[in-house]
Amino acid sequence: MQYNKDEVTPPSFLNHDFFVMVLSKAENDKDLTITELEMKPGTKPGDHFASIMFKAIVSYKTRGTEVLGRSLVVKTVPIEEGLKKDFLTEMPIFTRETDMYTKVLPEMKRIMESIGDDEELAPRLIYHSSDPVVLIFEDISKFGYEMQYDFYNFENTMKIVKKLAKYHALSFFMNDNKYGNKIDFTEYKHVMKDEMIEQMKVFFDGFRYLKDDIKTWPGYEEIGEKIGALEKTFTKNLFKVYEPNPEPGFNVLCHGDFHIRNMMFIKNKDDLEKTMFLDFQICFWGSPAVDLIYILYSIGDTDTRKRRGEMLRIYHEALTEYLNRLGCLKKPPSLLQLNIEMLQRGPMEVFWSTCIFPFFCMDFSKVDMETVFTPSEDNMLEMRKAMYKNQRTVNLLKEVLPDLLYKGILD
Predict the structure, then answer these.
(1) What's the pLDDT at 99?
(2) CB-based contacts of 199: which residues, under 8 Å, 6+ apart?
(3) What percent of the chain has pLDDT over 90?
(4) Which of 115, 301, 335, 356 holds its CA 20 to 30 A away from the CA of 78?
(5) pLDDT, position 361
(6) Is the bond preceding 248 in cis, omega lying within 30 degrees of 0?
(7) Cross-strand bridge partners of residue 74
């Protein structure tokens, strides 16, 4: 495995004294002592871009009790110079996630409990700080949660869809009852800025390499030409996807990065039993279509995409049912309006199918992460060539591009 340098050596502040302070507060014991501390990388290479993560394995004594091997998940910012540090410095992602864990998610939990719903949405936050920038969570793997790397079938995906509908419904209800929580979701704008596009070139700059490959596929010549023509205006159109609908349009607090590696699961063989959402770093107020498109390309399998109409209906029913349970007086969109939302956010489907899905097919354990975060022209060319030769990527593109063409999304 090739980790980014940041993910091998933790920042110097993550030391013995720091964890004594954290755990003393968590246990409310000023006399707490740590007997053993081990730091190790918290994720696999490629699992997370917008942070660096470690696991702290801590043994300590508190009030006469010895706690052995307590695992904490530590999230902080990059310290190594390069694209990753520069890019994340310009984004308010840690402020956003701290708000989510200290304001939004606790209020959601309070509302859920008030109607007898004890489901957990996210891991428990143990400690947070803005100087140094750090968030520390309970490691939920001890409860049986684990990562999932293969896409789910339709039935399991729908369980995630229903939980997403609940999360969206809670944010919609909270925004409609501002007097009760004093949280203004409209302040949560998307974190991407126009001037950051050059730094994100590794993700956006795929069309020039892709069009030539597509034109060699029999029957895809027209699609290849249209893909090549997208490059000039695509980023501007993509950024519009993140803009909220004008009132009285329907908006929710989107997760914003709703893919399978930003969740953990408890499974019974192949059946999904519980889901926990992670990484609330780029949540923003906007159309639910953004999160729903993520599901089609980064959670569900081919069968899920083929049954997208059914998926949208299941989401709509779950959303409406939970809003009714909450006693929300404001009506959600109709199923027809939701389908229109999906069409209007079409550039997001192009982005996912041509730019991001290929990254999901890469084996990052065999990739030098420095070439991803400091991409040269040659690095990008070689990376893109490898991506678009991957058979999973080719199969997906052959599946979805004709549909995007017929919907007018490639024009």
Answers:
(1) 96
(2) 83, 86, 87
(3) 71
(4) 356
(5) 83
(6) yes
(7) 54, 136
Spatial separation of the C-alpha atoms in residues 81 and 4, rounded to whole Å? 11
H or E stretch including 63?
none
What does 334-364 look like in DSSP terms, one character per residue? PHHHHHHHHHHTHHHHHHIIIIIHHHHTS-G
Residues 336, 185 contacting (CB under 8 angstroms): no
| Span 228-268, pLDDT tens digits | 898 888 888 888 999 999 988 999 999 999 999 999 999 99
ω into residue 45 within 30 of 0, thus cis?
Answer: no
Task: Say if CB 73 and CB 57 are below 8 A apart.
Answer: no
Q: Does residue 127 contact residue 134 with C-beta atoms inside 8 Å?
A: yes
Beta bridge partners, 136, equal 74, 127
Q: Print burial letters for 219-249: b (CB count within 10 Å at least 16), e (below 16).
A: ebeebbebbbebeeebbeebeebbebbeeee
Q: Band of the pLDDT at 178, cuts 50, 70, 90? A: confident
Residue whose tokens read 């999973």: 392
* 6 Cβ contact partners less than 8 Å away, ≥ 6 residues apart: 52, 78, 79, 80, 84
Identify which of 170, 143, 106, 120 has the alpha carbon closest to the alpha carbon of residue 277: 120
CA distances from 185 to 114, 200, 291, 343 (A): 21, 26, 16, 24
Candidates 344, 347, 361, 348; CA nearest to 396 is: 361
Contact 41, 56 (CB under 8 A): no
- Tell me how far apart the alpha carbons of residues 114 and 108 are, in angstroms, rounded to a whole number: 10
Residue 86 C-beta-side C-alpha neighbours within 13 Å: 11
Closest to 263 in 3D by CA, of 252, 272, 271: 272
pLDDT of residue 1: 41
3-class state of residue 34 by DSSP:
strand
Q: Residue 397 and residue 385: Cα distance in Å, rounded?
A: 15
Averaged pLDDT score across all residues of the chain: 89
**Poorest-pLDDT segment among 19-23, 83-87, 237-241, 323-327:** 83-87
Task: Match 């004709």 to its residue by tokens.
Answer: 402
Report how far residue 326's alpha carbon sits from residue 23's, in angstroms, rounded to the nearest whole number. Answer: 36
Q: What is the pLDDT of residue 369?
A: 56
User: Look-up: residue for tokens 């990484």?
Assistant: 279
Q: Report the half-sphere exposure of 305 (CA within 13 A, side-chain side).
A: 20
